[in-house]
Design goal:
mainly alpha, Serine Threonine Protein Phosphatase 5, Tetratricopeptide repeat, 2 domains, 9 helices
C-alpha cells in the first residue's frame, strides 16, 4: 500500500510538473509537493522509507536547481544533505554541503554546514586533518557565531583516543572538587 501511494505521488509530481509552464506555478507546485512528502516522511520518522527519502532528496535538489535565488533553496539543500546523511550516503552528503558552500556562501546556514561537514569527515571517513581544517575555517570565518565554543572543543577532541578523553575529563573533575 505504501509503495502504491508513493508511486501515485510520483506520478502526480510528473503529471503536474508537465502541465505547468509558468515558472511561478512550477515553484508553488514543487513547494507543495515538498510539503506533502515531508509530512509523509515525518509520520513514519522512526522507520524512514528509503524510496520516499530518495524522492525527498530529488525534490529538494530540483527546487534548489530550478530556483537558486529563492531564499529557501539553501535550506532545502541542507535538508537534502541531512537525509543523505541519515541514509549513510556520506559522499553525496559532502557533495551537497559543498554545493551549499559554493552557491550560498553568505547564508546564515554556513556555520552549521561547515560543522556538519567536519563531523562527517571525522566520524564517517576518519579524515581528522580535513575535519580539523574545516573547523578551523569555521572558527576563522565566523568568529562571533554561537557554534564557535562547540567547534573549538570538538576540534580539540578529533582524532583522540576515547580513553584519553575520558581520563582527561576524570582528571578535570577531580581537580574541580
Amino acid at each position: 500500500m505504501r509503495k502504491f501511494s508513493l508511486v501515485l505521488v510520483l506520478i502526480m509530481v510528473v503529471f503536474t510538473a508537465c502541465q505547468h509552464n509558468d515558472n511561478a506555478s512550477n515553484q508553488e507546485v514543487l513547494k507543495s509537493q515538498i510539503m506533502v512528502l515531508q509530512k509523509n516522511l515525518m509520520k513514519n520518522f522512526d522507520r524512514i522509507d528509503p524510496v520516499q527519502a530518495d524522492s525527498m532528496i530529488v525534490l529538494y535538489k530540483e527546487y534548489a536547481n530550478d530556483f537558486p535565488d529563492d531564499s529557501i533553496s539553501a535550506d532545502y539543500l541542507y535538508r537534502a544533505a541531512g537525509v543523505e546523511m541519515g541514509l549513510e550516503r556520506n559522499e553525496a552528503c559532502i557533495q551537497t554541503l559543498s554545493l551549499i558552500e559554493k552557491r550560498y556562501s553568505k547564508s546564515d546556514l554556513m556555520p552549521t554546514v561547515l560543522q556538519l561537514k567536519a563531523f562527517i569527515y571525522d566520524t564517517k571517513f576518519q579524515d581528522y586533518d580535513k575535519a580539523k581544517a574545516i573547523l578551523n575555517q569555521l572558527i576563522e570565518d565566523y568568529p562571533n557565531d554561537e557554534l564557535i565554543p562547540n567547534a573549538k572543543a570538538y576540534r580539540d577532541m578529533i582524532g583522540k583516543d576515547p580513553e584519553e578523553l575520558f581520563r582527561k575529563v576524570d582528571s578535570t573533575q577531580a581537580l574541580s572538587k
